[in-house]
Amino acid sequence: MRETKAGRPECLACTTGPDIADWRRMCTALGRADLHGKGLDPAPAWARTGGIGVFHFVWAVAVSVLGTLIALDYRNLAVRVYDIIGRVAPGGPPGPRFTFDHLRVVWAILTVVAAVVAVVKGVTLFG
Question: Residue 3, SS3?
Answer without folding.
Answer: strand
